[in-house]
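Researcher: Good morning. I'm working through a list of sequences from a screen, and I'd like to move beyond sequence-only analysis. For each chain I'm collecting a predicted structure so we can compare shapes side by side. This is the next one on the list. No need for commentary yet; just the structure.
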Amino acid sequence: MFAIHTLQVLKRTPARLPVRHYTQYLKEHAYINGAWVSAKDGNTFTVKNPATGEELGRVADLGVAETQDAIQKAYDAFYTWRDTSAKERCEILKKMFALMMQNQDDLAKLMTAEQGKPLAEAKGEIMYAASFYEWFAEEAKRTYGDVSPAMTGKRGITIRQPVGVAGMITPWNFPSGMITRKLGAALAAGCTAVIKPAEDTPYSALALAMIAEEAGLPAGCMNIVTSSRENTPAVGKVICESPLVAKISFTGSTATGKILLKQAASTVKRVSMELGGNAPFLVFDSADVDTAVAGAVLAKFRNMGQTCVCANRILVQDGIYDEFSKKMAVAVEKFVVGNGMEAGVTQGPLINDKAVQKVENQVKDAVALGAKVLIGGKRHELGHSFFEPTVLADVPKEALACREETFGPMAPLIRFKTEEEAVAIANACNVGLAGYFCSNDISQIWRVAEKLEVGLVGVNESIISAETTPFGGVKETGMGREGGKYGIDEYLQYKYICFGNI
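Model: Good morning. Structure tokens for this chain:
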């Protein structure tokens, strides 16, 4: 039998300060061709603090006409930016990195205000985001070509050139990191960009534009098109279908990604897509249980479970299942839920009520199918978009929590008997971004790492993404890679030049 744990609630006075109190990097206009602009019709949309439900401010709500203007300006700027030297691009990116790190606290507070993650996590994201500027600053100088084997009377070389204007559509869960991971590579390659940030978190994107402007990035190289949820489909369609845009990079849901792929196909664009995940976390009998629990807690509950690489299904082998379950519930019991601005808070709110409803529905479904609630399981008494960090035991494989990405603070535990069974369960989904497992059997480590149908594998490790490594998935998770030495390839094309009569 499992003990049912109760979350300790610390009642706190919510931080209710105006967003301007948090940071000097605050803009409520879109950014096109080096100018801060309003919507042509003067419309704005509201941005709310998910921890309090209060309005943070109102941001320019751009539409089709303004988006077309941003694309044209990026297209015009491309023909100058592509001809800058790699060293010039490197120096500007390094300045952007330095400015982000110098203003890490300000940028983190702004992020917490609009996204909700605890301030410590926001600071971590700013560091992570800045690292891509630093990394790709150096990669700008490494876009090498090739010399082909000599042909009679001819010589051939292959060079790499920037593809052109890159359209970037980014999510709210990492409002800085998902922009810099794309933009750093694009700028390093010599491309310009039109960025459509998520309507829930536009302030972080606009702050990055302020950083770029301060670093001396030329006008038109980085353009930020802000729009409401209502205008977003039309804006995205323009970006995807414009003949002036050569490349689309999107991070978001698989369903939306499929729509954008169809739109981008109309002009045969280069695309990279980082879409949904349903990450398995496997714990084998040979694993150290305490290490596995700590890793599972981190992989599941970071950013309140709102990451594409979150452990969505936690599979534990029969021999250690009971011990693992009890220890995980105890670990989750120690979380402090509250406003991310407050000291000591480890779990903030979800982004909005729709996200809360999804977690709530998955918990109810699992319990109806026989799962047991070890801790949490319902909306938090703080209200708004808070949900109790939750651990469910004995979750059946047919439960929604195992078949759909949760994107929230709920960990379903699934029992398995053999390695083959665990791998089969892990791979039984149509997406494959991240996968994790804990084992101290070296032969098993090799077997499982190679058999998991994912793009990223964490072996006895839960934090696996870095600027130096490729990020991306398989199956319906998408295509392309970001980060590492491969990230810049998404923004370059090859050109073969043949010299004759030699």
